[in-house]
Amino acid sequence: MPKRRTNSRWSGYDPRYIYSLVVRRYFVEMKTKTEIAEELEISRFKAARLIDEAIEQEYVKFLFPKQQLLDEEIAHNICEKYALEKAVVLSVSESWSSQQQLNEKLGGITASYLSDNLTEGMKVGIAWGRVLSSTVSQLSSLPQLDIVQLSGVHPGIEFSQGPIDLIHRLSAISQGKAHPMYVPMWVDDESLAEKLASDPAVLDTQQYYSQLDVVITGIGAWKTGSSSLCDIFPQAWQQPLFQQDITADICVTLVNSKGEILDSPMNRLGFGISTEQLRNTKTVIGVAGGEQKYEGIVASLKSGLLDVLITDFDTAVKLVNA
To answer: Does residue 310 contact residue 91 with C-beta atoms inside 8 Å?
Structure first.
């Protein structure tokens, strides 16, 4: 085996030239990483890293000329199968390596959808969570809206992903009015819950729950542990729910694998939009994707609460073939 030089003859070159060279060798000339490594007098691992970096820096871009039609077709098939008004599918041409990156991608297409479909004067409720935080961070403009908080707050939810922060950020973008609700997501005592429910500030926000044009919510998946609501629910509440096959949450509505709505202490002790108010909302948009969210998405679709689903291509394929 020939002895490898300590320093490659390419080591002093502008890295842009090296990126262009390796992607041409790999994708056009179909050379192996080992062959590229030998030519550049570097290790195979270094060659692989250069190819990855070149892709990340967009020295090569993948085009799928027929993909848009497939994206539209599968979105149409999801609507047909689950009686949705609309489905938006993140194209297979998009790539990600973690749930966080997928949330960023889903947040981007959700932001575009909202920019295109929300109109001035609408009353819009927003839940909480990572994908919604990503959505709001990628919104640059909106018409003037009333932005409504859909639940109380809980210290277990990171502030930047919580309901109060999200409604204020949205209202700042739209130059509309925020309707916050500065109460806990739930309390431990029914008499206290009743007292807080009669507070004028709470009533002022909750009056909008029966008037909403749009609700934007993530989808929690309980069986895979991919639910911020599951993470903060008291253990004493969780056990009976798992015995009832709890699979998903949509805002504070809990759903089993058949799409049936489950009762929970939240109905007596909590503060948030009710299942009936969700059903009466003109358009409920659910945003979720990825393997961990799949069962929760299926359960949510079976519940009939969603009008619009925004998800990724891989999940869409599974949904159509379920």
So the answer is: no
